[in-house]
């Protein structure tokens, strides 16, 4: 057997601080270019390695050998770390928190979710008129927050929801660019601290207003065993930011794609097509554009021996656009998901992660996008405005920037 190497190839040998700077300027382009030039295991820095082959990605996400953890302590302590949330926990603590929330995401809650989605779409359509030009992401954000709040908190949030929507939008915008340490009094840091304070205040009020004894929804489940406030706050923050933001972004990207493919938009009422279109939008524009794991034991991947303490980057953006797994990868083709269609490798599609640490609400998020998109497409067509100016913004989630449209009511 050939000896394992401990030094995967990479830009500038994977040993230059310039790689980190290039990543900060254009993370999507940098990761894509690195994988295309250097292969499936790429050194980005001495302690950061990109994995781009589904074999390695599946092994890491499933982690049957206990060699990786989801996130390291340095990240967990950061300003956006939400350290007490399930997603940032490990071991028995993570298992306890996941078990507590699991009932709120059971399949029998789908009817409740769909009812909230239909109500939300009806209210949104009432606020539109034919010929109205809209910022699609703004509109989908308000809609997703309204639907998500009913699912997570059991009730509409009104002005509280507007506050949360504005705060999350600011947080996403401010975390998308390279930023100096939080203790420095830069304008960006001041704006981020202000957005976080607004977010915290709205969360605290939402928690305080929850009716006692109500545990059918996620917030009620969180409060059922009287946990400490920071734990509830962090969990609720991640539920709202990951759930609502994922839905808003996915819907916006889907309508952007449908705008460039009107023949696909005309098929949204066909059985199974809306679901296929939602999956395809999340392939091209995955909510989690990069997923991180940290090795806690030595790990062999692709013929390389990695030591403990290495951060592994798994990028759905890179893998989903790899022609080995998806023919014509840059094209929006919902048909690839019809009639049981699947990617060329079982671990080549992972918009919500995979394995035991995969997103608890993945199936519900996909269903919510499917239902909302089908309902809107049955009533309106969104004509794209300056689609050439649309670009992805890789913040905590992959945000769409510049998606504007003119509303045209049908019939």
> What is the tally of beta strands?
12
**Elements, N to C (H/E):** HHEEHEHHHEHHHHHHHEEEEHHEEEE
Rounded to an integer in angstroms, the radius of gyration calculated over CA atoms is 21 Å
- How far is it from the N-terminal to the C-terminal residue, by CA? 68 Å
Could you characterize what this model shows?
Helix content is 47%, strand content 12%. It has 411 residues and is α+β, with helices and mostly antiparallel strands. The strands form four sheets. The protein has a five-stranded mixed beta sheet with strand order 1-2-8-5-3. A three-stranded antiparallel beta sheet has the order 4-12-9. α8 runs antiparallel to α9. The termini are far apart. About 1% of the residues have low confidence.
Core attributes:
three-stranded antiparallel β-sheet; alpha+beta; five-stranded mixed β-sheet; globular; 15 helices; 411 residues; single chain
Tell me the layout of helices and strands.
Elements (H helix, E strand, L loop, with lengths): L16 H9 L1 H12 L2 E5 L2 E4 L2 H9 L5 E2 L3 H4 L14 H11 L8 H17 L6 E3 H18 L5 H16 L12 H22 L9 H6 L5 H32 L1 H4 L7 H12 L6 E5 L3 E3 L2 E3 L4 E4 L1 H5 L41 H18 E6 L5 E4 L3 E4 L2 E6 L2
Parallel strand pairs: 2-8
Antiparallel strand pairs: 1-2, 3-5, 4-12, 5-8, 6-7, 9-12, 10-11
């Amino acid at each position: 057997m050939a000896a394992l190497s401990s030094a995967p190839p990479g830009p500038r040998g994977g040993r230059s601080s310039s790689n980190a700077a290039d990543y900060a300027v254009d993370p999507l382009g940098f990761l894509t270019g690195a994988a295309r030039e250097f292969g499936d295991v790429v050194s980005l820095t001495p302690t950061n390695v990109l994995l781009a082959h589904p074999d390695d990605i599946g092994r890491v996400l499933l982690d049957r050998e206990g060699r990786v953890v989801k996130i390291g302590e340095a990240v967990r302590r950061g300003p956006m770390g939400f350290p007490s949330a399930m997603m940032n926990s490990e071991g028995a603590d993570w298992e306890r928190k996941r078990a507590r929330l699991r009932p709120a995401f059971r399949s029998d809650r789908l009817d409740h979710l769909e009812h909230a989605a239909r109500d939300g779409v009806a209210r949104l359509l009432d606020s539109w008129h034919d010929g109205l030009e809209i910022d699609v992401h703004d509109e989908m954000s308000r809609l997703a927050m309204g639907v998500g709040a009913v699912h997570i908190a059991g009730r509409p949030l009104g002005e509280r929801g507007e506050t949360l929507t504005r705060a999350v939008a600011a947080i996403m915008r401010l975390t998308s660019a390279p930023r100096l340490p939080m203790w420095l009094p830069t304008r960006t840091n001041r704006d981020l601290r202000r957005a976080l304070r607004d977010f915290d205040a709205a969360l605290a009020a939402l928690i305080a207003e929850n009716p006692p004894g109500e545990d059918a929804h996620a917030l009620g489940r969180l409060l059922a065993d009287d946990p400490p406030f920071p734990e509830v706050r962090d969990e609720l923050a991640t539920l709202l930011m990951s759930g609502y933001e994922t839905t808003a972004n996915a819907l916006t990207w889907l309508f952007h794609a449908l705008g460039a493919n009107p023949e696909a938009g005309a098929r949204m009422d066909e059985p199974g097509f809306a679901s296929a279109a939602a999956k395809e939008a999340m392939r091209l524009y995955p909510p989690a554009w990069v997923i991180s794991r940290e090795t806690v034991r030595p790990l062999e991947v692709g013929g390389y021996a990695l030591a403990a303490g290495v951060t592994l980057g798994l990028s759905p953006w890179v893998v989903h656009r790899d022609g080995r797994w998806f023919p014509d990868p840059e094209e929006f083709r919902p048909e690839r998901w019809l009639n049981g269609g699947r990617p060329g490798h079982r671990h080549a599609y992972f918009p919500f992660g995979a394995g035991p640490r995969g997103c608890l609400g993945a199936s519900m998020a996909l269903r919510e996008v499917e239902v909302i998109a089908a309902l809107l497409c049955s009533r309106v067509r969104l004509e794209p405005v300056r689609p050439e100016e649309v670009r992805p913004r890789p913040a905590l989630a992959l945000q769409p920037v510049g998606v504007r449209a003119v509303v045209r009511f049908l019939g």
